[in-house]
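User: Can you predict the 3D structure for this chain?
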Amino acid sequence: MPQERILVVDDETNIANSLKEILSDEGYSVSITEDGLNALDMIQSDPPDLLLLDVWLPGMDGIEVLKTVKTYHPEIEVLVMSGHGTIDTAVKATKLGAFDFIEKPFSMDILIQSVKSALGLKKHRPMKKNDEALSEFAALIETQKAIKTHSQSDRALLFLGETGTGKEYIAQAIHQKSSKKNLPFIKLNCSSRPAHEINSILFPSTKQTPGSKTKVIKAPLTTPQVVYLDNVDALNQTIQKKLFDSLNPAKTKEQNLLPSRLYISSSKNLNKFSTQNLFNQDLLSIFSNSTISVPSLRENRTTIPVLIRNHLEKVSQKDGLPIPEVDSIALEALCEYHWPENIRELHSVLDRILATAPSRKKISINQIPQEIRKSKTQKAKIKPNKGNSFQQRTLKRSVVLYGSGLHKGLKTCLILQPLPLGSGIIFSDIS
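Assistant: Here is the predicted structure, written as structure tokens:
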């Protein structure tokens, strides 16, 4: 009989090594890692039977790892551990599908019993393989790796994708993980901002005022910052050329480009624009190895339940109300819709439903807008599984919640919800 496999994820190396030694003596095959993203990578390569997961991890938070695992690998049982836990943490973990929540320092007898119970439950669960979901899981990991890689560099980045796909969210995610995260993140819409304003922000030493010759004037922004140029295709050719001259490593910098880092984005086909002389070909070539393509939501339908759950959680937390349950028929209708305006439209629809709902406890098919209910796409329907449902699970050991050593309150922090490539990035406060 093959050994049951356990993956321990804990950034405290001494604890991880101790758990590996003890559980190996119990007859399990144990692997360890201290990083949440690396844990997802290991799960993709060889899914374990059980995940022992710490809450506070560098990079990707343990709660976010739990969300991701239960979305794409609901068959994996998860035991969540924390030395800084609260009742809220435990409730959140069990709602998301954790088998149990264990407070550090824990009794090894209790831990081993929880491990046996979790693995015993797994044996009695039917195995369901969802190739589409597994493909999305692989894409998710690649997206997170790309975010991590790009956050370790100051290189300018280009984001391409339809309107509403979350290009700015991804840029913000990279910014929040970068060494420049404390600098202002300035968004400039090139289709609505006057060219001379954009020019003065990007190149503060020399400005062009309307109807006048070039001259030196005081810049409106003269401190280091990170700039996100939205709809860069609307930028005039003069500024495009100046950007190329500033970003081209082979040229002497004649232009003083102010931003400490630059992100640009477009919903247009810039390759086509460049062949029509509507976009600077040289500038486009600068981004040949630093372009992030963001597919539409209809190309990533398996992510829709995740996006729905996280937006409802974010709004409910802000309003101080319980997270509503979405019944299976309503969820199926939302998953079938083609979402022409992508994530932005999905969030808008959910906000309208919550604003007009007689009850915030449950969202039914009757509350879904008529155009979505009637929409019949030709693509395969998504059947929500238990990993995507909103049912609350019961806590197993109240003694864990009320044991000694629990700290009041949970640190409030910015949490990045990883999503498969192109589905955008969701930010939320966990408290």
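The domain at 156-289 is CATH 3.40.50.300 (Rossmann fold). The two ends are 43 Å apart (CA to CA).
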